[in-house]
Specification:
mainly beta
Length: about 280
């Protein structure tokens, strides 16, 4: 594990002294690389933390994706209220390990639960969200054909847990539809010289809940592929999640990001640590 993630991990671990909140363990999901509650690369309809009706939750997270030619460090904080409203602030740092240099992006996320429940209703939990993204190092994205250094993603997500669905275990399924102008989630800018329209893409997650503390899952993230100079492939991951308690969770997985900026076969690891406190 590299030093930025390790130092943040030690900070998050020191926060495990707050109230637990009243939601069921693991129902806040993890925190995605963009700061929204969900899986590693896909935002779900769930709201971060364990605060229920009338309660607040604060979540701190740090994650690292390491593939052949790049390293992506993400960190930030999320705030939720009433299990309906979610606000997140995130920062991404993409290190260009082979080329040299780095790209930075900041993300402000908003999410609102509009209907349903994750556990106790026939209707899935449905949430709408947006992510305001700002690319802070626009020279490279501009040089390869990006039109803007900022953009706003919008999405609708539906999540549902099915009890006793497979081998006596519970299963969580999530589907997300996203509108975006971002290349490589915005790290390579927004829009292109030839096309400044929103692209609509789909994202999916499936999670087998082995017991209250352990889960295994897989995700798929469709990408828009609009830059002329390089192909942008869809992303995939498989992961194991450990929810130690309502204060601390750890996710480890394998990612396949395909081709990034002409660098082929970008596969590697995903690590994420999250600490939550509710009041």
């Amino acid at each position: 594990m590299k030093k930025p993630l390790l130092s943040t991990a030690l900070l998050l671990c020191s926060l495990n002294v707050a109230a637990a909140g009243s939601k069921v363990l693991a129902t806040g999901g993890a925190t995605s690389i963009e700061g929204a509650a969900g899986g590693g690369i896909v935002p779900w309809a769930v709201i971060n933390g364990y605060g229920s009706s009338g309660q607040w939750s604060v979540t701190g997270y740090a994650s690292q994706v390491g593939v052949d030619d790049f390293t992506l460090n993400s960190k930030g904080i999320g705030l939720s209220y009433d299990n309906k409203y979610e606000l997140s602030f995130g920062r991404q740092e993409l290190k260009l390990d082979t080329m040299g240099g780095e790209l930075n992006q900041q993300i402000i996320g908003l999410k609102y639960k509009i209907a349903g429940e994750l556990l106790y209703s026939a209707m899935p939990q449905i949430s709408v969200g947006l992510q305001l993204k700002k690319q802070l190092d626009f020279a490279i994205p501009s040089a390869v054909g990006a039109r803007h250094d900022s953009g706003t993603d919008v999405y609708v997500a539906a999540s549902k847990v099915w009890f006793d669905a497979l081998w006596g275990r519970n299963i969580l399924l999530n589907a997300t539809v996203r509108g975006t102008k971002g290349q490589q989630t915005g790290l390579l800018g927004f829009g292109t010289v030839s096309n400044d329209d929103y692209q609509w893409v789909s994202e999916f997650s499936a999670v087998l809940l082995l017991n209250p503390q352990w889960a295994v899952g897989a995700e798929f993230k469709q990408k828009p592929n609009e830059l002329a100079f390089a192909r942008e492939d869809h992303w995939r991951d498989v992961f194991v999640a450990w929810f130690a308690n309502k204060h601390l969770s750890l996710v480890a997985g394998h990612v396949d990001l395909g081709s990034i900026a002409t660098f082929e076969h970008q596969t590697g690891y995903y690590l994420a640590l999250e600490s939550t406190w509710s009041f």
